[in-house]
Amino acid sequence: MMKEVESWVEGAGYARALGVRCESVSEEAVSLLLPYAEVNANPGKALHGGCAASLGLIASQAVTRAALGKDAGPFHTAGLQVNYLAAAIGEDVRATGQLLRRGKNMCFVEVDVATLEGKSIAHVTSMVRARFDAEPAALRSSSGDDGASDPGPMGPHIGKLNFGKARGLSIEHMTGSHSRITMPASEANAEAGGGVHEGAVVALLDTTGAMAAWAETGPGPFKASTPALQAQLLCPPTDQDLVAYGRVVQRDGDGFWCDVEVAGARDAKIVARGTVMYRIVTP
Asked: What total of structural domains would you count in the chain?
């Protein structure tokens, strides 16, 4: 069973694109290594927040799959909380996950993402749900947005940055405190068993929330970061291109709370939702 979980981790197109390696996995714990790669970094060699969140998610899924067995699937990460503690600058990172509680059809997992020197960069907790081949849930449709297509002054540049370019992100709208970003169901975003990898979905959610905050302030001499992210994956991986809608729902000084819905581009069904807490600070 552990070999199958290792194959699931490393066999996904998304995990291969990131460079994730499974060092060890058991029914209680997992260790994943992510060597530094420029394609996973923001300007300045800082690890993209979507990568750290993805590592936490993959580690949580790996432990759950090992604990409950392949017959419990398909799986989806029904709850994910990521707190970003520090930046990894041009460094390899490791995710170590620990099973907190095993239930009949769900597992609770805690993950520490840290540099190899031991500096914690993200703390992740999650609840992964096993569906035991139950009938698919009836997903609700997204109301989308008003259909405006103005990428603003920043949008044309965001999709050209390393991580966004590798995901194929297209910034369709980014003004007036709202954002809309599309992502293709490409091999670089793929799940091992088919469909779009949950890690890629969370990375899309993370980016869309951040861009909603930037859509309110516009460009400037700012410093920015994501202190926290919450996400819920509402179903197992979908096989279609995705579109994410972000909007600022609250601002308090340099803090922005941005709600995000991720839906199928073909059927408009909501597959994930969450909130990104983002900071934009004047130096």
From this structure: 2
Domain annotation covers residue 49: yes
β-strand partners of 244: 181, 262
136 within a domain of the structure (yes/no): no
Query: pTM value?
Result: 0.97
Tens of pLDDT along the chain (283 residues)?
689 999 999 999 999 999 999 999 999 999 999 999 999 999 899 999 999 999 999 999 999 999 999 899 999 999 999 999 999 999 999 999 999 999 999 999 999 999 999 999 999 999 999 999 999 999 999 999 999 999 999 999 988 999 999 999 999 999 999 999 999 999 999 999 899 999 999 999 999 999 999 999 999 889 999 999 999 999 999 999 999 999 999 999 999 999 999 999 999 999 999 999 999 997 7
Q: How far apart are CA 58 and CA 77, in angstroms?
A: 9
CA gap 82, 84 in Å, rounded: 6
19: left (phi over 0), alpha (psi -120 to 50) or beta: left
For residue 147, being part of any structural domain is answered with no
Which one-letter amino acid corresponds to residue 78? A
| Amino acid, single-letter form, for residue 176 | G
Question: Which of the 8 DSSP states describes residue 189?
Answer: G
